[in-house]
Amino acid sequence: MKTNEIKNLDHLKKLTSLYFRTLKPLDDNTENNVAQIKFANYFELGCAITNLLKMCILTLDHDAHKISNTNKNPINVSLILEMVLEIFPLDEFEFLSEVSEMFIEKNHNLIT
Predict the structure, then answer these.
(1) What is the top-level taxon of the source organism (predicted)?
(2) What pLDDT digit, counting tens, does each position of 57-106 carry?
């Protein structure tokens, strides 16, 4: 391999260890990964699951303006959005930007 390619691979390995943190590989020798959402306790987890289910029910229900017995409490949209933010792979997007810049710069040097 060329010296530049080896440097690029080493740089990619370093970037990968710095940025790829959202998905964690399972220890079951499969190719499956896990994204974790942290909750303080079971009640908070239960509230999150309940809110997700309520939002799905209201979304699917054509008469969403009517509140049924299971939907007496409002949906906690901020809790749902917080969960989405927790699993959003921002570090991985930053990594992709770094890699993109690395290769765009390399390709730009080849063109000029």
Answers:
(1) Bacteria
(2) 777 765 555 555 656 777 777 787 888 878 878 788 888 888 877 766 55
Query: Taking phi first (over 0 means left), then psi (-120 to 50 degrees means alpha), and beta for anything else, what does residue 24 get?
Result: beta
- What are the structural domain ranges in the chain? 1-22+90-112, 40-88
Residue 44 near residue 76, CB atoms below 8 Å: no
pLDDT digits (tens, 9 = 90+) for 20-49: 878 888 888 888 888 888 888 888 888 888
Give the number of other CB atoms < 10 A from CB of residue 57.
14
pTM here is 0.49
Distance CA 13, CA 7 (A): 10
- Among residues 77, 78, 80, 60, the alpha carbon closest in space to that of 68 is found at 60
Assigned token pair, 45: 């987890």
